[in-house]
Design brief:
Blueprint (H helix, E strand, L loop, with lengths): L1 H54 L2
């Protein structure tokens, strides 16, 4: 009975860790492209404003 309980605890722990790991990976792979897109658009807007200022005079 003790061995079965230990196996159950280890199994639940591994499954919980696997689910946590998958969630972290999913969040990581979703957040990095969003951050890159945000930085790109921010830089692109700044560059565009700078270009507009240069062309104005």
């Amino acid at each position: 009975m003790d061995d079965l309980l230990l196996a159950l605890v280890i199994g639940i722990g591994l499954i919980g860790f696997a689910v946590f790991y998958v969630l972290v990976c999913a969040f990581w792979y979703i957040s990095i492209p969003l951050f890159c897109i945000y930085v790109y658009f921010k830089y692109f807007r700044k560059e565009r404003k700078f270009e507009a200022r240069v062309l104005e005079p």
